[in-house]
Design a protein that fits this description.
Layout (H helix, E strand, L loop, with lengths): L5 E3 L1 H13 L4 H20 L4 E5 L3 H15 L4 E4 L7 H9 L4 E2 L7 E7 L11 H12 L1 E7 L22 E5 L2 E2 L13 E5 L10 E3 L19 E5 L4 H12 L5 E5 L12 E3 L3 H4 L7 E4 L7 H11 L5 E3 L2 H5 L11 E3 L3 H10 L7 H12 L2 E4 L5 E3 L5 E3 L12 H14 L4 H19 L5 H6 L1 H8 L1
Parallel strand pairs: 1-8, 2-3, 2-5, 3-4, 5-6, 6-7, 7-9, 10-19, 11-12, 11-14, 12-13, 14-15, 15-16, 16-17
Antiparallel strand pairs: 1-10, 17-18, 18-19
Helix pairs in contact: 2-3, 2-4, 3-4, 6-12, 10-11, 12-13, 13-15
């Protein structure tokens, strides 16, 4: 894992900083590195215009004093507002090093940029009425808002907003490592653009991962369709969803996609092979590398039988849609390889089926992965990928235009295609999430699921 992609809890971040301190870097030195790195971004945004820095009593406030002094030395007009005196040793030293006046109240402070260093990632309780009023007042009197590490009033580990009517920021500068609040709602919607200032933190064992652009390799010069991966997609009562998944799978890297369906599929693209043979016969093909079951499967007895037929095979399998509702623990092979792709309702159903008790999409996904042995791709406004071995990945924000019927079928098709290429199931799920979001970005607003499926080729091109 690269340090620039890891997402740390408050406890993990504190431990990572302690490692640096134990190795000989003082807290004051870390504060100088973080503050000067943040000041570089503020300098670019300010473009020589006045800056107000709001400082709190802790080390986040200390970062603010470093930012203020750095900008002052570069010739900017800087106003510092600090309603509370510094309380930590490093913050006190940073305050002493700042050559300028410090106001205890907002007064008539105004300018182009407000830098919020009031409270940082350690905050777990709501801002006091006085501090909230001060923050809102200063925010209203500045054109741009920048948060250092996190906006005041945001809980780092959950992304919860601890106060109502918190300001919306134009830029948030993460210090040392990403925090969960940088990636999950509701905080994510208020942070604006995100930038990361490294301070030397090394990879942390057990840290979550921010899903980034995958590295997709083009086929080898001597490749043929079977060596690139054969996908088997099993249709059910409603043929359209499985065909949509098949069209996405055809564009996501696999060399051969077969749709096993009793329907005619008159509108299927010419390159899609539709097999109407009995399912047991069709799935006996030993060349199949990965299977998908669920889109349009149906919840009746026929759907259950088709699901069981798929799960009886020793093939990596993506389980989606109706199959997630029909799935029971006894259907899974102990050593099987599975990716499950539930939305919130399906995730709740799976948790009941597997006797998992947890709250929130992230915790449910992690607990279900460990209990079931499946990689869980818990999709939604916040998307998490959890592996049975404890790995966790968080998706970057994707276009909200994805909230339309059929886009989940496209995601499942991408996932089975990546799985068929031989990718580790956790990696395949993460690749699918990124490619799904990238396809949505490329296709633009107000698209249909068909448009999205056709845009998967462009997403693959962006990952080469």
């Amino acid at each position: 894992m690269t340090p620039s992609r890891q997402i740390l809890t408050v406890a993990q971040m504190q431990a990572a900083e302690q490692v640096l301190i134990d190795a000989g870097t003082s807290v004051d030195e870390l504060m100088q590195i973080a503050g000067k790195g943040a000041a570089d971004w503020v300098w670019r945004v300010a473009a020589e215009r006045p800056v107000t820095v709001l400082c709190g009593p802790g080390n986040n406030g200390g970062d603010g004093y470093v930012i203020a002094e750095t900008l002052r030395r570069r010739g900017l007009t800087v106003h510092v507002v600090a309603p509370i005196e510094p309380k930590t040793s490093a913050a006190k030293h940073a305050r002493q090093a700042y050559v300028g006046k410090v106001a205890q109240s907002g007064g008539d402070a105004h300018g182009h940029v407000l830098v919020d260093c009031l409270f940082g990632s350690g905050l777990t309780r709501a801002l006091s009425p006085e501090h909230l009023l001060l923050l809102r007042d200063l925010a209203a009197r500045h054109h741009m808002l920048i948060a250092v590490d996190l906006p005041s009033g945001v809980e780092s580990d959950s992304g919860a907003l601890l106060n109502e009517r918190l300001p919306e920021y134009d830029l948030t500068i993460a210090l040392g490592a990403w925090k969960f609040a940088h990636w999950v709602l509701p905080a994510r919607a208020r942070l604006g653009e995100l930038k990361l200032v490294p301070i030397g933190v090394e990879p942390v064992k057990g840290a979550a991962l921010a899903i980034g652009r995958p590295s997709v390799e083009p086929p080898a010069l001597d490749a043929h369709k079977y060596r690139r991966g054969l996908c088997a997609i099993v249709a059910g009562r409603m043929p359209g969803a499985a065909q949509l998944a098949s069209e996405a799978a055809m564009r996501a890297g696999a060399g051969y996609v077969k749709l096993h369906s009793p329907h005619s599929h008159a509108t299927a693209p010419a390159g899609l092979v539709v097999n109407d043979a009995p399912l047991s016969e069709a799935l006996a093909d030993r060349r199949i590398d990965a299977m998908l079951v669920g889109p349009g499967l149906g919840l009746g007895g026929e759907g259950e039988q088709r699901l069981k037929a798929v799960l009886a095979q020793e093939r990596p399998t993506v389980i989606d849609a109706d199959a997630l509702v029909l799935l029971t623990p006894g259907m899974l092979r102990e050593a099987g390889t599975y990716i499950a792709t539930p939305h919130d309702g399906e995730l709740e159903t799976l948790c009941r089926s597997f006797s998992v008790v947890a709250s929130g999409r992230q915790k449910r996904a992690q607990a279900l992965a460990q209990t079931s042995g499946m990689v869980i791709l818990a999709k939604g406004p916040d998307t998490f990928v959890a592996a049975p071995d404890g790995r966790l990945a968080v998706a970057p924000p994707a276009p909200s235009w994805l909230s339309t019927a059929g886009t989940g079928d496209v995601l499942a098709g991408i996932a089975v295609s990546r799985l068929a290429t031989g990718a580790d199931p956790f990696v395949a799920a993460c690749e699918a999430v990124w490619l799904h979001g990238e396809a949505a970005r490329q296709v633009g607003p107000a698209f249909t699921a068909d448009d999205l499926a056709r845009a998967v080729s462009g997403a693959i091109a962006a990952a080469l």
